[in-house]
Specification:
42 residues; 2 helices
Length: 42
């Protein structure tokens, strides 16, 4: 997980920003699934 993403998540949880937490979770799962697909093709 990139450092910038960890910082964003920690900030969102610290501020209890549910909207940002949901958005970041969706972004992470999208990013992670794309990377898994790319590594499995090689």
């Amino acid at each position: 997980m990139p450092k910038w993403f960890k910082r964003q998540m920690l900030n969102a949880y610290a501020n209890k920003d549910v909207r940002q937490i949901r958005l970041l979770n969706q972004c992470w799962f999208f990013y992670h699934s794309k990377n898994l697909d790319a590594t499995q093709e090689n």
